[in-house]
Amino acid sequence: MCDQIRRLDAGIGEFLAFIDGLGLRVLLVVTGDHGGSDFPERLVRQGFATAKRINPRQLLAGIAAEVRQQLGLDHEALVSPDSVQFYAVDKDGKALDEPLRGKAIEAGLAAFGRRPEIEQAFGLAELLDHKITASAVSDYSLKDRFSQSAMAGRTGDIVVAYKSGISVAPIRPTRFIMGHAGPYHHDTAVPIIFWWRGAKPQTRVLPVATTSIAPTLANAIGVNAPSDLDGSCLDLGYPAAPACKR
Hints:
The chain is of the alpha+beta class. It is 33% helix and 11% strand. Helix 3 (56-71) packs across helix 4 (100-113). The model has no long low-confidence stretch (mean pLDDT 90).
């Protein structure tokens, strides 16, 4: 991660130097599409003893074996494309028919719940029915977070949240040693930096949604944003930009 940040800083520096050479007036926004934890081996060295890397294939094999034995099946009824979503399938890899599908999901949820690496496991049905009551995104529970991206016919029958510090990403030297991190606040929060030459440093204490970037930029360049656009305009103090309409 340190090397990644160093390269990002150098790349942005080169880009700004190029823009300066054009003599243009620039408002630059830097953010990310997701946050990320450090890789587990370094987390252990930093004192997080529970952090570790696990083999997702072994985890799935163990869970699938439990489901198979409990239901008396002659095939593995759970498959996964990403070690986070798990689908209940028949011998041909197609969705199981009811009532066996429901039983396989129930058995799978129970099996995941017994694993020390898993913080929580959710069935798709409960995520689709879930109503968020927290007022701030930073206060969302794991179920709140997963329910926002749950989609019938696409999301897995079972969705799991690994404990913080647990990684299922393989080590691939020269390519990557860490994938997307977990659903926790420290994994999902990203920086948002607005910069222009002569900008006075300022920090926003309360969380700002990434959906605020578009209406803020629209206001800065004098464009009327659609009324149904997500997010809200931020008053940055950008030269000649009008005050945001409330």
